[in-house]
Design brief:
6 copies of one chain form a homohexamer.
Chain A (H helix, E strand, L loop, with lengths): L12 E15 L5 E9 L2 E7 L3 H5 L7 E11 L2 E11 L18 H12 L5 H12 L1 H9 L13 H16 L8 H10 L4 H4 E2 L5 E2 L1 H5 L1 H14 L7 H13 L15 H26 L23 H17 L1
Parallel strand pairs in A: 3-5
Antiparallel strand pairs in A: 1-2, 1-4, 2-3, 4-5, 6-7
Helix pairs in contact in A: 2-5, 5-6, 5-11, 6-10, 6-11, 9-10, 10-11
């Protein structure tokens, strides 16, 4: 069983597995080589030192490898450090990703099944077959199930993309019939596909970051390429339908400044943009509030991207109680 | 029964009622006085002339009055003109406002009852009583039922404010439970109240325009004043609840540039802003498309406020049919 | 031989061919049908009327057809009008496009050969083969040779895209070696491909406008699709090279606000953006100055996109002469 | 008499009173409880430790209380620390606020009397009575006299709001007659009322910060509510006058981006905005220069809100002397 | 004595002088040459025709000349036209500029003397001598006395620059002592010099427009050049003082976007910017209101540069009266 | 010969010369005075201490002096420190500036001769003589040869201005003939003069910073003053030519926001702006990449002014090799 880094105390004998984030070598004052490591898991990070057989052990693993480690926790310069007696590389198979990276609190399999179910609402045969092709693409599905939805703003954890996609598709189902004239099939397909490019834009197998093609091309273009790739396998897919679908993907950020090269020009694109933006904002603020509201405060820290703080009001029921107490008190005075 | 201006043809004998938009007097070459009028109803406008007894008749009515008119339609300088033999002022009682101004296509009474029903979803006794006060305020309700929601952008017709308010409240009901932690009572009350200030911001009894206080103070402030006015009648209304409600009103435009002096800082305000913006945009675009897509075109005219055109795609079913026809044709060639 | 519309005078007997821009029918006072046409060619437009056999003739051609016309020019309500006695549809084969649309003043074939020559400078076999695929694609080449480069700003005439592309490629050749470390092959290929999407973004066979996919997707995306399409035929094409090339296309507008979803992140993309922008601006201003500097003025009209006027200074040689004359004159006074 | 924190030296025996900014408890290595305090006054802050009777003493006071303290100053880890032998809560009555918070250098009573005098210039009976109501509202006056005018930018100290208000009213008196047609009474009243909402927007009894309603509603709305509250007590107050006055308050920031939901639309509002902005900027820069010009420098530090530095030129008289010296010197060389 | 164009009626025999704005020649149906003129003065413009001796008379004058004209006013195509029997060029000497161009309503000589008087407040000998050089420069003074202050926004009439300069200098005198530490001499000199470049930026001898150097360099640079030109004649003028003075000129627009290449960095520059901006805005709005408030309206037309309308409230005294009338009326109902 | 600071190791006996960046005095625990210095050269900085004869030695030099130093390097608090036994001021004559400040890697004399050569391309006698005056102005040339081109963005080292100027002039020569109608003489002169004001805007004799006049007036205005100063010595210099040249200088930043008070209005100014911007950006990015791409990374650090990172792709040749290796590998798996 895994021991988490934030559970380790001075003098603990540790035997667990971690991810190697940094690896370098040094020379002790006595002239012998040693290894300096930074080990991480979901709960934090720790410095590691290999004092014995450093050179031999160093060959068996590298940066970004998962390793099995035996060692003892000691205090050095005000920090815990792991003096490692044995270390060896592990294959990914023995690994639970969620031990190492922040992960959605929801059940991935359950969410995925729900999304498949939502897909079945689509009646248009072309759109339906298009989605089917994605669901049958195992390598895509493997990525899609664990990809995060962003690095910073919202759903920035494993499974976040799936969580956001399912949430958006459900919002579409709730809102599309509110207005006449919006095409459910087109909008629902668009909502499911809209961020598919994020499986390529982000890299999330060792640390959450952007990939080279993510930075140079962006998830909008990468998503269109994935869609185009499937459409080529559907020779009867109507050209105009393909154009509308791509327009939904292209324009879903709503504005040039937010990276959309086109603004929404059809009603479905307008609604997709609003619901996507609302889902990202509300979920992003909820995550932020969870972590960044100091205890005893009703105000969050300052959110640098939104350039503001957020307020967490007391429950309405509480408001009434509080005020009547306060009132009594002020009447007493 | 009313004859509409766009039904009148040359030589028709007309007897109907109109609104006087302009009124001035002139002197004929022979030195006698005549009246120049511009008469309007919902369907258009027409020049009117009173050649006989002009001075006497002129005293009985003024600009912005409703008048009953008898006369004959003639052609003059390429336009129809009404030579009026009799004209007299009418009281508003005999008038159907919808004969004179663009009016919602929905049933006002029905929408109003639906909104009352929605109000009953609110469990919080303070918020519920606050809304009750508004519904009991007959002079407010009379205004609220016919007020438009804006001059230009969306719901710019009689009953538009009610229509937009009901639509927004329903959107709130659909979306609020999608996220945990949002307070239904607060959000629903906020959605119902959010544009109440528009009954004062706009003037819509003779022509749709902004009132002086509308221009100088705006509907956000005017709405807060109306709300404050009612809250004063509820001595137990919690101060913090009042603060939150006003924050929803203040911030519902979402950004400084769109006239909100505060940006949304609580989740309810964030959602209210998105749904309000979405409802205004989608409805505004739908209205625009109805009027401003030239026949035979899939593109609307250029929308000056949104700085773009909109595209009206063919039905998806049609897309497939069209393309297969086109394909056959191109294969034949 | 073609008679141009701006050469026709009152009472001329006209026999020539034009493009039908508008076509509708009317009823004369005597109750017989007639045809109202708007005919255009490169030099202007004229109203046409078919008074005899209108119904029969109407069936033989439609809006946007080229037609051969026989008729007589008469004055009606201060404008020339063509009373047409015979009219019939023409096939495109007999047509010189440059008779109907503004066309580059340069020789299209010559420019195209020059561009082929420039292509041969590319040594990288992948990039070279990629371009080769485009040049061998006859339907693409046919479009590319006559496409305009934009509707408004610059090179907005048939052949304009080719002219701009050749100009940009030559600028690249002149500037690339000015700095060390820029890759000529990548930059040159990027400059040739950068606007290929415009063959699809614009429609220019009857009137210069944007196509549906041009408006909904834009030439950046359309261009990437064309490039992707060819790369798929080159199984060995390196993935990283494809990524860099697409980045050049994506980022060549330089800023989000100008429609690029990514800003230039490699040096080649930075230079491509500057040279493309410079070529578009300078050529656009030169075109504008040619048409929009009133005689006798050194200042152009106000350019609405650039929000300024431009100044056309006298030749430097002239400046000296003018000033010495002026000086002598003022000394005389 | 108060001892200021910045006067205390190592080994001083201290007996004075301070404000408790932080309070927490710890356990010594020997297992006994102690108190950790952060004590502040106007001049700085100091760590405090209570080693004896910590638990008992802890009950007698809390965070944000004023306390009377007896103790000895010692050096610990490069900082002075107060070892406290006795500590007890004080009531506010014995406190001079200016001992604890930065305070205006001017005399508050004198400024307030001057403002009353300025108020008497107002001849319009409604406006005059309105102001009178404020001056008679003791709880308001108590707040108004000590409120700061902002947290960061200008007049950010106790009494700052009064100082800024008086300054602005005097600027109005100096400038209003410069143009014909501006109404002195309206403008003067507006200038006095314009920031009244700041008594509620800021909280300044323990530390200078924004209140909840300050953040959620802002001083513009809070000010309008205070004004509205008084106007309700004046049944004859003309509605149009109330509208104009509120417009002045609403628009005094001049632009949407600066938090005004309306821009100035009457001349009085235009002047109020300019003079208010000028007073805030000039006073803000003067404060900044006082603190943020390094010795020997003519340039201030970088001002983050204004995004620039400021230059403090030598006196003009000095310029001449300096330069003639420099000249002589350079001539000698 | 001058007859103004807006006084002329049909059949009047006219003998007066005008400015020739356009001049061209035509051929009558009978084959003889005639002259087409557009004549203007301050009050309007009129078409003129010379039917007799057109060729001879044409040689004696040109476009932009002042001419003495004899002729008769006739109606032609719904407009008055002047059939001219005699026309000859006039020298400027006989001309009152204010007959031809909009001119300040104030007395130019009186304003100029006031400005001289204000200049005498400056004690610093360098600044005082610098201004003196300008006042002694006759060709400058001649231009300065009649130059307008802008083409569009404010003081856009002959004498406007002087009027604005005097107004600004007086505002400086009123406000400078409001704050400690601002240098009166520097600020007053800066205010007088700040727009001197406008004598060169605008051309205002025939029609109000920008000169070539005005458009290409702007009044800020042109003003600095005029100041630099005078400073060169003052060898002892301190270099630092020159730098500060130029900084005031450079930065007086306050922001890059308003054409200042530097923002104000000294307090004097900050105040100069605010007072200049306030004077331009208030005066500009006052001018606009005078011309652009439709009769019977309290709202001005839409001001395109300010992107808003302005409100002209009734006098406060009137407000009370109006409201009590209204009240009585509504009570009666 | 100079010893560089980054070559010094513990216990080295040092005898070399440095620049004194900071100088202050302290008192040792035993009560004697000592000197604390910060010494710098091109390679870094070091703390210096003078323990003996501190007061005497202190008098012989000051901050910003070059000094010859004898001392020994010791470790103190984890940093090297120089215990100085002798220190004395040096004159600048013995100094190689490039030992102390970052300096262009190119040969200054060679670049300057190249620029003179480029100047000779100018045929217009006025422009040619104007440049000649600058080249003959020894004090200007001395500054111009070593001035940097900016503090932050590009060419921010001694000789950088010359390097940028030569680069820009060569770009002009390469591009000017690409379009017809651009005047080579004007454009080339403009490119050489365009940043001359930087010799005054920056101060670069002891540390690279902005001068007072640089901050208050900026290099655009300072450059125009230097040009104006020379033109005054050329009485025949055409006024219009001077105007055009100044327009080029004024507008070369291209936009108000980038500090140009006028935007380019002639074609030569448009091209100058683009080429100047391109040269600054490309060179700035190249410098940034050299320093700020972490080893092993293809991505630079975040560039705060450009608000992005830059990508350094592998060589194209390398791309192919890499990918075929990767391919083989994936095929093997």
């Amino acid at each position: 069983m895994k021991t988490y880094l934030n559970e380790i105390k001075e003098n603990d004998q540790v035997e667990s597995f971690f991810l190697v984030k940094d690896k370098s070598s040094g020379i002790t004052k006595t002239g012998s080589a040693y290894l300096k490591l930074k080990l991480v898991d979901r709960s934090g990070e720790i410095e590691g030192r290999v004092w014995t057989s450093a050179e031999t052990l160093a060959q068996s693993f590298g940066k970004d490898d998962f390793v099995r480690v035996t060692g003892k926790a000691v205090f050095f310069q005000e920090h815990l450090q792991l003096n490692i007696t044995h270390i060896e590389r592990m294959t990914e198979e023995g690994i639970l990703f969620s031990d190492f990276f922040p992960t959605t609190e929801k059940d991935i399999e359950e969410m995925f099944q729900s999304l498949l179910e939502v897909s079945r609402e689509i009646k248009n045969p072309h759109l339906s077959r298009l989605l089917q092709l994605f669901w049958e693409d195992e390598s895509f599905v493997r990525l899609f199930r664990i990809a995060p939805a962003s690095k910073w703003l919202h759903h920035n954890y494993l499974g976040g993309l799936l969580e956001h996609t399912l949430s958006l598709a459900r919002l579409v189902l709730k809102n599309v019939s509110h207005y006449s004239g919006l095409n459910l099939d087109l909008l629902l397909t668009g909502s499911i596909l809209h961020d598919f490019g994020k499986v390529d834009e982000l890299s999330y197998h060792r640390s959450l970051d952007y990939s080279d093609e993510g930075r140079l091309l962006g998830h909008i273009i990468l998503g269109i390429e994935r869609v185009e790739d499937k459409i080529r396998q559907l020779p009867d897919f109507p050209k105009d339908l393909s154009m509308l679908l791509k327009h939904l993907l292209l324009s879903h950020h709503g504005q040039y400044n937010w990276g959309s090269p086109k603004r929404p020009m059809i009603l479905e694109a307008v609604m997709l943009h609003f619901l996507d933006d609302m889902d990202a904002k509300i979920t992003g603020i909820q995550q932020f509030i969870k972590k960044e509201v100091p205890e005893g405060s009703k105000w969050s820290a300052y959110h640098r991207m939104f350039e503001q703080s957020f307020y967490v009001p007391p429950l309405l029921e509480q408001i009434q109680v509080d005020e009547s107490i306060e009132k009594n008190r002020s009447e007493e005075e």
